Task: structure prediction
Amino acid sequence: MLHNKSLPRRTFIRGLGTALSLPLLEAMTPGARALAAVVGEKSPVFPTRMAFVYIPNGANMADWTPAKTGSDFDLPFILEPLKSVRDQLQVVSGLAQTRARANGDGAGDHARANATFLTGCQARKTSGSNIRVGVSVDQVAAQKVGHLTRLPSLELSCDKGRQAGECDSGYSCSYQFNLAWKSDTTPMPPEVNPRLVFERLFSNGIASENGESRGLRNRYQKSILDFVMDDAHALQKKLGSTDRRKLDEYLTAVREMERRIEQSEKFAEVKTDYRSPEGVPGDYEHHIRTMFDLLVLAFQTDSTRISTFLMAHDGSNRSYPLIGVPDGHHDLSHHQDDEEKKKKIAKINRFHASQFAYFLEKMKSVKEGEGNLLDNSMIVYGSGIADGNKHDHHHLPVLLAGKGGGAFQTGRHIEFPTETPMTNLYLTMLSRMGVEVPRLGDSTGKLVGLV
Result:
């Protein structure tokens, strides 16, 4: 037992250059109950998390869309890897992003798809510095509730960003390589390097100590945990058996993540003639999963409640030889109804869905009270393009995972009327975060039937 005192929710274990947020422990529950009594909610109080995961170049919609709506639906070929978390999913059909269409601006659908995905706004067509689009939903939430956590939001990507120059038919690269926009002219560049994400999550924010800590770890091959173990051991003596086990599992997960990043760095050094940037895996699948693992840790410790993850930018021509598709993804997306090309696109879509399933399974494995981390989250997964050959921006491939703290009915395929703004979904999610705004981009109101 904890000597008749509860732990504050914002408890850290600290050491030189290091500060580890703790997962929610039973010892924190009395404090949560007290807070619940003040705000009139059920106890214990678990925060709601929000994330947006982007996949490029649309999907082969025939292999994405379930044949039936409601709870009696089968997962098509692309979505089959999500079978283990089907009960936590909503396949959401009928949503559109009208501002991703040309609307008089000509070519550039890939740039607009990325830029519009979370903003619902038309991007100004320019390859210069006078970019303009709109504030993204994640940053609207971060401006209201970001102060409650160590990091207001967390932006991730597996593509090295380009913040200047022309990338798509007269559009600045900044549109294609950013999902999050703090203002209509200021993108939030995502971090591609897992090592830097790890350091950001587990450093104490004091630059001089962070540098000293990294130097000592490199010199003596120490773990980041070596600097906090005195604090951790002192805390464990005060905890009950369940919390001791939970803390041990958490510290083990942090160390495993550190080892994986270290292994990636060593592998990168061996495979090339020059030293690759630290922590960026050469293997794409490993890179995606490492980023997802870091996101789980960030949510588990309440380091942030808001995140975006650009798995690949729209227009990406990455090849996928690991699944037997050596062709470029963007090239394949212009399939001109070639069935073989469509099958390859479906395989790429299924690969991405497999990585998302890995993430959701990890979220589901983290217990929070009688539920789990995924129960208390809202995760949008999808693309700003439907059929890549036509550059359609309606009937978008969209999933909503998680129960939003009990707000959402999951385990179903729900279809909204054609041309329903995707931003209506975001208004609904913002409301669940306690953020009420009258409008976001092209929104017309909250989605009826989602909650």
Q: What stands out?
A: The two ends are 39 Å apart (CA to CA). Residues 31-43, 208-221, 268-277 have pLDDT under 50 and may be disordered. The domain at 48-192+283-296+305-451 is CATH 3.40.720.10 (Alkaline Phosphatase, subunit A). The longest helix spans residues 241-271.
